[in-house]
Every structure is written in structure tokens, then in C-alpha cells.
Amino acid sequence: MAAISEEMLERLVQAADHSEVKIEMAGGMPTWEAMPGIRHQRIILAVATSIKRKPQSDGDCGCHPAIDVYIRFPDGSFKRPDIAIFCQELPDVDGATEIIPAGVIEVVSAGYEAKDRIGLPFYLSQGIADVVLYDPRSREVIHATSVGQTVHAAPVDLVFACGCVVNIPL
Question: Of the four listed, 2, 98, 102, 129, which is most buried by Cβ atoms within 10 Å?
Fold first, then answer.
């Protein structure tokens, strides 16, 4: 496999945005998918607007959701999770952020199941404490942490290690 510079990858990613294609690279493996449909976008919006701080929780996480933002990871990977949860408000940037989120939620897209499932072990390997994979067609919700995984059926409320509460709808 030919190597690709970070600058070239960023140019490809920006060009893909204009052609309605989502390009990512995780652990040296490039993946792509067409921009998601309305069901996918409605679910993402519903989940993102449900995120809040758990009452009486310790810590100072502000539970700030970011939808479809590129994240550049320390290993050089470049991913764009459906929803990333950050403890602090992100600064305004035009490119990728290098701030690692406290949690990530991926909604499985029809036809791109393998690409979406790759994200779960990748995000955990990058130190993200909570990773959720939701398949709206089967209603399966996998909540993974460094100590294991739990499987739920949507709808379900999940509590993240950072103190954020997330509702995964039907």
C-alpha cells in the first residue's frame, strides 16, 4: 500500500466533502462511504440533542456533542465519527481537530456496516473511554469501554465514564 501524507489526506477529505463522500483512515486502512440518508441524520440529531450531564455526577465534563467532525489521532489516523462528545467546547477550526473526545457514537449505515464496525476497536485503541455502535435496523446498541462491552436494545439511556448521559432512540 502506498503511503499518503497528512496534507494529501486532508486535501482528499476536503474534496470528498464537496462530492458528498466521507473518507476516513484508521490504522492505515482507508475507508469511504456516501453521505448518509435522512434516517441516519435524524437519528444523529436525536442522539446529539439528548446528550446531557448526569445529575450529581463528579467531574467537570461539559458534554459537548460534535456531529461529523474530523479528528486527527496521534497515530496519524483521520476519522469522522457521527457524534463525538467532548468535555470542553471545541475551538473554531476549519480542518480536523486533534482533541480526543471522551466518547464516540457511530450509527451503522446500510451498506457500510463493516466500515462502521471497524470504528469500535479503533476508537478504544485511541484511548476513548466510551464507544457506542447503534444499528437502527436491528435496534442493537453496543456500548464498549476498556473493560468490556454491553449489548442493549434501543431505546436505551447510557451513562458514560465522563458523566454524560446519552439516549439512543428507536
Answer: 102
- Collapsing DSSP to helix, strand or coil, 16 comes out as helix
Nearest CA to 104 out of 91, 78, 86, 89 is that of: 86
pTM (predicted TM-score): 0.84
Which residues of the chain fall short of a pLDDT of 70?
1-6, 8-22, 32-35
Distance CA 33, CA 84 (A): 18
Q: Is 140 helix (H, G, I), strand (E, B) or coil?
A: strand
Q: Is 131 in contact with 122 (CB distance < 8 Å)?
A: no
In CATH, what class is 36-168?
alpha beta
Alpha helix positions (H), the chain:
6-18, 38-50, 113-125
List, for residues 94-132, the tens digit of each pLDDT value. 889 999 999 999 999 888 898 889 889 999 999 999 999
